[in-house]
């Protein structure tokens, strides 16, 4: 039987991780319409955005309501269904769509940015979560609930970067992934699954070595040793030239650009004519950016590279389902660094803030 009250977190202020407040007797949300489902959330995973929301660094064009429930990525078991629900049954393992209402590419409008979980509207850091049946998808049948909690932002952004727009990734191409965070490692996995080469960068050789080992199972039998190559950007400043060198002297086909001002010019220079720099993040904004980078004439860099530079915003529900099928059939499993307990949520955020993480941080509810 469903309890009347539940545990959930709210963001009681946006001045840092201390703003995360655990409530132990919040009302369990009821179904609001006949097409709603109620999910008993079992796992969460964190994204950079979750941290940016509590530190008030998230620049989305919408406000974050007081006492919003944080976290966008979760997974759980359908525990109640409205009388008109046809897509799910009680017991199904599902993950909510982020943002709610982004079903097809043309839905990507401000009104849907205003439905981003754990920011504009309540997220999933709660034992129960209610949404319309159209706002969740089945996780891969071969995923655990913990693995299912990593899908909604990292994998969708990686998928969208490589497949939702032109050009689209093809076997034999090369994808340069910046850093070893959630989006980049998801992109590396999707690229290897497609038969592409991957060049990973990181500030840590230890992380690069670990990533190279964890990505091996996706490689086709007999794939050459240079299918996964790495660059320690803390040691090699000109990592754009190094990426070209590793790619046989040619620009790469795709860059997973997550660091923004501090890296975008090098990303463009690393890319071949007509290749795609898929820009999803701006993590370098949180550190000091050298003057020569700020002063660089980015327009000329883009012009003379003739690369495509495109903003990416997660992906729509239909592409999300395709991504999930690809992971399911390809047997790709998320790279999970560490799993915290629900009452350790602040520690999980701090782990991310300290930059210690690698791939995904999960939280068991
Ligand atoms: N547009 C969208 O739809 C969308 C969706 C998801 C995420 N994002 C954005 O994408 C970015 C990444 O998100 P995430 O969740 O993957 O973050 P994350 O898991 O926290 O990734 C952090 C990693 O990024 C790497 N990094 C940081 N600064 C870097 C730099 N200057 N150069 C190269 N690598 C750098 C570091 O890797 P190493 O430690 O290995 O150096 C760091 O560990 C964030 O800005 C986030 O807001 C946007």
UniProtKB/TrEMBL annotation:
InterPro entries cross-referenced by the UniProt entry: ADH-like_C (IPR013149), ADH-like_N (IPR013154), ER (IPR020843), GroES-like_sf (IPR011032), NAD(P)-bd_dom_sf (IPR036291), Zinc_ADH-like (IPR052711)
Gene3D superfamilies according to UniProt: Medium-chain alcohol dehydrogenases, catalytic domain, NAD(P)-binding Rossmann-like Domain
Domain Enoyl reductase (ER): 15-363
Gene Ontology terms, MF aspect: oxidoreductase activity
Pfam families found in the cross-reference section: ADH_N (PF08240), ADH_zinc_N (PF00107)
PANTHER family found in the cross-reference section: PTHR45033, ZINC-TYPE ALCOHOL DEHYDROGENASE-LIKE PROTEIN C1773.06C
Protein name: Enoyl reductase (ER) domain-containing protein
């Amino acid at each position: 039987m469903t309890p009347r009250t539940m545990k959930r977190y709210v963001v009681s202020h946006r001045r840092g991780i201390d703003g995360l407040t655990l409530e132990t007797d919040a009302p369990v949300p009821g179904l609001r319409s006949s097409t709603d489902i109620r999910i008993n959330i079992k796992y969460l995973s964190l994204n950079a955005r979750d941290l940016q929301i509590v530190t008030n660094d998230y620049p989305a064009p919408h406000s974050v309501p007081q006492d919003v429930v944080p976290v966008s990525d979760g997974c759980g078991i359908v525990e109640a269904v409205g009388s008109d629900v046809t897509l799910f049954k009680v017991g199904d393992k599902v993950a909510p769509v982020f943002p709610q209402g982004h079903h097809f590419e043309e839905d990507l409008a401000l009104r849907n940015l205003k439905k981003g979980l754990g920011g504009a509207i309540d997220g999933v850091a709660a034992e129960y979560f209610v949404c319309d049946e159209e706002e969740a998808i089945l996780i891969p049948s071969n995923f655990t609930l913990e693995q299912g909690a990593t899908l909604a932002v990292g994998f969708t952004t990686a998928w969208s970067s490589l497949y939702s727009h032109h050009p689209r990734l093809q076997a034999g191409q090369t994808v340069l992934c910046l850093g070893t965070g959630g989006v980049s490692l998801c992109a590396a996995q999707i690229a290897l699954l497609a038969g592409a080469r991957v060049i990973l960068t990181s500030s840590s050789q230890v992380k690069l070595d670990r990533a190279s080992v964890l990505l091996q199972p996706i490689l086709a039998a007999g794939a050459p040793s240079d299918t996964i190559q790495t660059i320690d950007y803390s040691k090699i400043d000109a990592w754009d030239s190094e990426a070209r060198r590793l790619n046989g002297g040619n620009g790469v086909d795709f860059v997973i650009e997550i660091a923004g001002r501090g890296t975008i010019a090098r990303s463009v220079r690393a890319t071949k004519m007509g290749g795609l720099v898929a820009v999803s993040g701006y993590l370098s904004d949180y550190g000091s950016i050298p003057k020569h980078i700020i002063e660089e004439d980015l327009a000329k860099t883009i012009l003379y590279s003739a690369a495509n530079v495109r903003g990416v915003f997660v992906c729509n529900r239909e592409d999300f389902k395709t991504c999930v099928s690809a992971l399911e059939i390809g047997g790709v499993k998320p790279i999970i660094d560490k799993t915290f307990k629900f009452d350790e949520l602040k520690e999980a955020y701090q782990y991310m803030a300290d930059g210690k993480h690698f791939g995904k941080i999960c939280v068991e509810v």
